[in-house]
């Protein structure tokens, strides 16, 4: 939304939906990932957030869909960041200094991961490894024992863990945390905004189920 | 062609106003309201957009952690302008490409839209800091490169204006000192108040009260944090109404569509905007304060709108009300005041730049016995102690000066940020998932140790030699690191805090004292202060005690850029008090006889 300068006087301006409500991420084709990349990211999502009896894993809770939509959008393009040069390597406490935004970075990382797996893991793609092999590789990337060609494997694992866990806990409107599975798992009631009747009820579990920006499943009539 | 490259060579000159205000946050709104009351014709020029509570933050979609907290939607975008950062003078500063250690505000209401609304007063000794510490401990006690100063204004000067700001906001709290008499349940260390807070304290959650009980058991004096989230409906002296806070847990980084958080929009703008002698231009960035040939008089400001058109707004009086570091930048770019040179130790603009030295302690409790419901909270909820703030303890044996309040002030349970697991837990996988699920309701994250940061000769602001903003102007360069004094204070207070968490019954207590070097990627607070400080001597301050520029008497500079050093509190209460103090001086002294209010 392009903001335009205006002169305001006499009263408080009113525009409907001035805050631009978010739109629900829809299921459907991948917007950023190729089919191969998506398979790898879904496999990664299920190792980073494995399914267990408490809650579905990263794949079924939509974390790869979340990351796909984020990378296809402003976050992927580093929109709004300071992207002017010169680009110089900095100290860790000076923050990201790369000219690459997250989308380009993920494209490079996932290509390097695939190349590595084909070369060093029996000509297999990451998704084709068994769970133990997947976990071992992630650990080896983290401690530098496995080295990706032209990419920093440690940074890759650090970032994708952060992004997929974020998708797990973000509002389902963004594609992850499907059916508020993560919120139910931890006991977070979501976007409710009035706890006046519970602030004084110390050490008592809040009894109501979560609500998201998109409402709740049972509020939406099932199709067909 | 983008908007920026269309900036025209010739600016269009607008009709002259009595007063032009740069930035419409807390201080701009207060100054505009006070000066329009005086009958002056006032225009405010704001870089960001118009925003209001009901339109921009309705409670059916304002509670969006990803959008507002993680993606920083309400803040200035670094591509509009950012800062460069380095720790030491011999390093190369690099640009902050995405926000980390702090997040500068943007838009009408400024930081007053998305703050937590902690509304503190500084201690009386904070305003005479160098004198006080020198008298108590001797001049040799302070590190040689520490450049702390007295403010040139005292707590007693400011008390009526703290009161004004608190009644504007409807601040909720328990007085600890009424006209010199210590009150049970309040902060016994605070300066005397002329009357109680306008509203009673907010209610507190289980974790907040358990902490207070443990602190009291250790002999400390806990009290509720002064809060600008309403404990009850409130109508302020301007007739503007707020509603009771509902403890939704979406306060800091968010706007309050419930009208329960003191913001310019919920306290003063509804009155100001209806005045016929006030107007506002939004989405318009002031690029320069214009001066006449002598350089001693401001003639108005030059600004650029989002279409790239350049305008000149002449005015008799200029009031600079931007975020602290932008105040300093605009002074440097407008060549007002002598830039600070840390090597020669001359000049004033950029001097005594500070931030905060925050530490925390994480407590993990037995989930079968403790359920904190961390999502039931407000921005300024919580219980605090002031026993270790300022000079409330004898620093003689400790070997450092300064301190901070300690508080269990957990403001939310938003899960992206609030999924702490004990140290040693893997970062991902089955064990991570289990611990997140087990500890979400029984963890108290990041208790606040709100450490002061005093000023030093090699911590300062100047213009960057390499990086430019979208108009081609140099970015502001921050040279900042922690000194031993602050890190010692952090370690000491973190130990004290950990004892309280242990006494609460935590099974795991994890201390996180702030450590050096200063890290631009780790959020602390947005309390960056100084750089255009107030004082009694034009050689060591940019502004006199009324926030009037020593060099350009028809320019006043509001905000935390005036703080000679940072105290162990959130700054907004003091920023508000200083704004009312300066407004009074303009109304009662300056307008009658425009010129310097203090002769050096």
What can you see in these coordinates?
The complex is a heterodimer of chains A (224) and B (600). Chain A is mainly alpha-helical. Chain A has a domain at 35-80 and 97-188. Chain A is 35% helix and 1% strand. Chain A contains 6 helices and 1 strand. The longest helix of chain A has 19 residues, at 102-120. Chain A is globular, with a radius of gyration of 21 Å. The two termini of chain A are 36 Å apart. The model of chain A has no long low-confidence stretch (mean pLDDT 94). Chain B is of the alpha+beta class and 600 residues long. Chain B has one domain: FAD/NAD(P)-binding domain (3-Layer(bba) Sandwich), CATH 3.50.50.60. Chain B contains 13 helices and 25 strands. In chain B, strands 1, 2, 3, 11, 12, 13, 14 and 25 form an 8-stranded mixed β-sheet that branches. In chain B, strand 4 (83-86) and strand 5 (94-95) form a beta hairpin. Chain B is globular, with a radius of gyration of 23 Å. The termini of chain B are far apart. The model of chain B is unreliable at 1-8 (pLDDT under 50). Chains A and B meet through strand 1, helix 5 and helix 6 of A and helix 3, strand 5, strand 11, helix 11 and strand 21 of B. Strand 1 of chain A pairs antiparallel with strand 11 of chain B, so a sheet runs across the interface.
Which helices and strands occur, and which strands form pairs?
The complex is a heterodimer of chains A (224) and B (600).
Chain A: E1 6-8, H1 35-48, H2 63-72, H3 102-120, H4 131-142, H5 153-169, H6 181-186
Chain B: E1 12-13, E2 17-22, H1 26-37, E3 42-45, H2 53-56, H3 65-70, E4 83-86, E5 94-95, H4 111-114, H5 129-137, H6 155-169, E6 177-178, E7 181-182, H7 206-217, E8 223-224, E9 234-235, E10 241-242, H8 264-267, H9 269-272, E11 278-282, E12 284-291, E13 298-305, E14 310-320, H10 324-333, E15 351-354, E16 357-364, E17 383-385, E18 404-408, H11 430-439, E19 443-444, E20 448-451, E21 460-468, E22 474-479, H12 484-504, E23 508-512, E24 529-531, E25 555-557, H13 572-590
Parallel strand pairs in B: 1-14, 2-3, 2-14, 3-11, 4-22, 14-25
Antiparallel strand pairs in B: 4-5, 6-7, 8-17, 9-10, 12-13, 13-14, 15-24, 16-19, 16-20, 16-23, 17-18, 18-20, 21-22
């Amino acid at each position: 939304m392009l903001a335009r300068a205006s002169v305001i006087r006499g009263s408080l301006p009113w525009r409907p939906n001035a805050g631009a409500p978010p739109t629900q991420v829809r299921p459907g084709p991948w917007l950023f990932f190729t089919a191969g990349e998506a398979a790898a990211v879904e496999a990664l999502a299920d190792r980073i957030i494995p399914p267990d009896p408490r809650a579905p894993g990263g794949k079924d809770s939509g974390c790869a869909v979340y990351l796909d939509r984020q990378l296809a959008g402003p976050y992927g393009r580093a929109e709004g960041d300071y992207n002017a040069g010169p680009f110089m390597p900095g100290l860790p406490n000076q923050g990201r200094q790369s000219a690459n935004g997250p989308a380009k970075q993920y494209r490079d990382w996932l290509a390097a991961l695939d190349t590595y797996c084909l070369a060093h893991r029996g000509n297999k793609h990451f998704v084709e490894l068994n769970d133990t092999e997947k976990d071992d590789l992630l650990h080896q990337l983290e401690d530098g024992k496995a080295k990706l060609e032209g990419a920093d494997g440690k940074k890759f694992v650090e970032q994708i863990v952060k992004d997929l866990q974020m998708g797990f806990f973000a509002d389902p409107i963004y594609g992850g945390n499907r059916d508020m599975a993560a919120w139910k798992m931890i006991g977070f009631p979501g976007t409710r905004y009035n706890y006046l009747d519970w602030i004084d009820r110390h050490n008592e579990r809040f009894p109501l189920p979560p609500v998201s920006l998109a409402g709740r499943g049972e509020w939406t009539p099932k199709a067909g | 062609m983008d908007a920026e490259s269309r900036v025209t060579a010739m600016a269009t000159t607008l009709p002259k106003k009595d007063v032009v205000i740069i930035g419409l946050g807390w201080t701009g709104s207060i100054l505009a309201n006070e000066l329009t009351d005086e009958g002056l014709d006032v225009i405010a020029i704001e870089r960001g957009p118009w925003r209001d509570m009901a339109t921009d933050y309705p409670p059916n979609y304002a509670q969006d952690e990803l959008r507002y907290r993680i993606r920083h939607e309400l803040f200035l975008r670094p591509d509009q302008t950012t800062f460069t950062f380095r720790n030491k003078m011999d390093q190369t500063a690099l640009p902050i490409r995405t926000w980390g250690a702090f997040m500068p505000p943007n838009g009408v209401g400024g930081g007053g839209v998305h703050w937590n609304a902690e509304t503190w007063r500084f201690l009386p000794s904070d305003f005479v800091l160098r004198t006080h510490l020198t008298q108590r401990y001797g001049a040799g006690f302070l590190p040689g490169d520490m450049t702390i100063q007295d403010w040139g204004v005292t707590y007693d000067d400011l008390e009526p204006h703290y009161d004004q700001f608190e009644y504007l906001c409807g601040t909720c709290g328990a007085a600890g000192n009424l006209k010199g008499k210590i009150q049970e349940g309040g902060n016994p260390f605070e300066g005397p108040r002329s009357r109680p807070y306008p509203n009673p304290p907010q209610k507190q959650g289980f974790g907040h009260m358990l902490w207070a009980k443990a602190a009291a058991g250790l002999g400390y004096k806990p009290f509720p944090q002064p809060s600008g989230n309403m404990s009850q409906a409130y109508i302020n002296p301007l007739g503007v109404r707020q509603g009771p806070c509902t403890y939704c847990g979406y306060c800091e980084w968010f706007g309050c569509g419930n009208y329960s958080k003191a913001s310019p929009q919920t306290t003063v703008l509804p009155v100001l905007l209806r005045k016929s002698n006030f107007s506002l231009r939004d989405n318009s960035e002031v690029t320069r304060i214009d001066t006449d040939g002598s350089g001693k008089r401001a003639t108005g400001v030059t600004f650029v709108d989002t279409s790239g058109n350049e305008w000149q707004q002449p005015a008799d009086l200029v009031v600079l009300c931007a975020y602290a570091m932008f105040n300093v930048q605009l002074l440097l770019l407008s060549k007002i005041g002598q830039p600070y040179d840390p090597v020669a130790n001359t000049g004033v603009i950029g001097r005594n730049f500070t931030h905060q030295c925050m530490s925390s302690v994480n407590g993990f409790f037995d989930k079968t016995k403790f359920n904190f419901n961390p999502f039931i909270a407000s921005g300024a909820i919580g219980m605090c102690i002031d026993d270790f703030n300022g000079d409330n303890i004898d620093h003689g044996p400790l070997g450092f000066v300064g301190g901070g309040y300690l508080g269990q002030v957990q403001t939310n349970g938003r899960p992206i940020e609030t999924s702490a697991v004990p140290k040693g837990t893997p970062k991902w996988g089955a064990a991570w998932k289990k611990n997140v699920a087990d500890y979400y309701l029984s963890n108290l994250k990041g208790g606040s140790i709100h450490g002061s940061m005093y000023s030093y000769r090699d911590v300062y602001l100047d213009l960057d030699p390499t990086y430019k903003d979208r108009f081609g102007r140099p970015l502001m360069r921050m040279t900042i690191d922690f000194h031993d004094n602050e890190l010692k204070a952090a370690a000491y207070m973190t130990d004290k805090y950990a004892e309280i968490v242990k006494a609460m019954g935590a099974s795991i207590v994890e201390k996180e004292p702030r450590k050096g070097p200063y890290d631009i990627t780790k959020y602390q607070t947005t309390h960056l202060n100084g750089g255009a400080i107030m004082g009694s001597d034009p050689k060591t301050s940019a502004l006199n005690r009324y926030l009037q520029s020593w060099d350009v008497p028809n320019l006043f500079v509001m905000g935390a850029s005036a703080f000679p050093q940072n105290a162990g509190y959130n700054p907004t209460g003091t920023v508000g008090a200083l704004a009312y103090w300066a407004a009074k001086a303009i109304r009662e002294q300056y307008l009658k006889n425009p010129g310097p209010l203090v002769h050096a």
